[in-house]
Amino acid sequence: MPTLLQSWLQNHAEYEAKGRKLAFIVGPGGNAGVISAGLLAAMVQTGSVLPNAHYIGISVGAYNLLYLLANQNHHAATIFGRFYCDNRFINPLRLLNHRPVLNLDYVLNEITEHTVPLDYSTAATSPLRISALTTNGNGEALLLPLTGTPKQQVQHALRATSSMPYMGRTQNLHTLSEWDGWLIEHTLLPHLKQQGVTDVIWCLNRPLEEPDTMLSRLLWKYIRHQFKTTNPRMRQLIKDRTLQGDFLTTPHGLRLEVHYPHTNIPANCRSSPQLFHALGHSYRTMATYLGHPHLAYPTEWAPWQHHMPR
Fold this sequence. Notes:
By secondary structure, this protein is α/β, with parallel strands linked by helices. Helix content is 40%, strand content 10%. It starts with a helix and ends in a 21-residue tail after the last helix. The chain has eleven helices and six strands.
């Protein structure tokens, strides 16, 4: 029996004529975003991109959607193993200088501008509807457009959806406008249902119930303490999110299909071979799911294919 995604690929015109609406969501996860990069690359290679779906990215998921669907730039999937493995991108010691652990300036001013350029003009004219999830001042879900909009607004949205307190942002911590989409992703399903969405495909980069390490527990405790007096609403939002567990077990009356990762990559992974192997593994997994088990890797990946499954 075809899965939800397979059924939509086969019958999307019929479904849309009946009023069904599909949202395709790509979750957050830092360097674990290499998982969804592989999945999306396989979808592009097999012509399996649904033209009228609403694509929604959360944090790194937003970057992957823009690069791989709107730009169809397969070089982008190699960013994780090439440029996100060193201190230029991720460095916990930056907190000692009151700077965020993740260097979003490096991503938006160097990577997307010069190293692997994002084609903002192509995104502005893309027929695909791609949005980034962030929050508004009330801690509610807010979807910012990434296609059909000027470069400045796209960059603003990409920064907003990645602005995790102390992870991606250390300035203006007293406000609660436009923070990392991870904080609010558990409210997205009922929000989409209110918008008339009937079907949802959710691609995860990491398990939702991934065990906390001692370091992560201490970090969240520190972050909540920092917000105790400066921003109690943010403190409560973080506490609520960390208690959610696998919120996708409740589909809120929607047809829901979840693509769980077939390999586990830590968000802070710095091993280039491990990241490239995960990229190839997720690419092969999606290609097989789509009926193309022997799909060749994109030629842009040739220098790193020795790290990938054969």
